[in-house]
């Protein structure tokens, strides 16, 4: 572990991604060393392969790497939240563990943050050239259209795993399973601005996707109703000390 407190924590949730762990860790260090003081927080969601053993082995050669392990499988949103809770930096970057997000985009998100209004607390990646199957791209386009109509979050791509956000603002948000798919709407509900930033997207080179289109759709419909209810019931009150 690095001795100095980092200014950026990179949180990566993983489940059965043993062949993608080492390449992605090395890409993160290549993108960020000399750019910003950082740490990498991997959260293993009780993988059934040897992902955890691979991560333990990498700790010896990557001093920035920390590893959190779920004793029981809990899902991606819980893994992200536990990684954020464990993080030591005030700003968080997230990446999917499958390697399809490009760590080289993190400095771009940091540059967007540095030039943005102080009220902007989330910088969401936008996969303008998705490298997924046609069925997955179609399902995502359909889901994004419905979400945008219901939530009016002005975000073209909420499913992109690469995001940059303020840790404190994230921990203020209501927590529920699958919340990571609705971060722009939830941040806006909390009174913060959000920005979408075009990023690179890559083919998966190892392993298989842990999700299917029907499963995403069924969960998404239920969650959309819940998030819409949260937004409708939300209330912001300005305060001042006298």
TrEMBL record:
MF terms (GO), sorted A to Z: undecaprenyl-phosphate 4-deoxy-4-formamido-L-arabinose transferase activity
Transmembrane feature ranges: none
Keyword terms of this UniProt record: Cell membrane, Glycosyltransferase, Lipopolysaccharide biosynthesis, Membrane, Transferase, Transmembrane, Transmembrane helix
Taxonomic source organism: Marilutibacter maris
GO cellular component, one term: plasma membrane
A Pfam family reported for this protein in Swiss-Prot or TrEMBL: Glycos_transf_2
Keyword Membrane: yes
Organism domain of life: Bacteria
GO biological process: lipopolysaccharide biosynthetic process
Protein name: Dolichol-phosphate mannosyltransferase
Keyword Protein biosynthesis assigned: no
Residue span(s) of domain Glycosyltransferase 2-like: 9-170
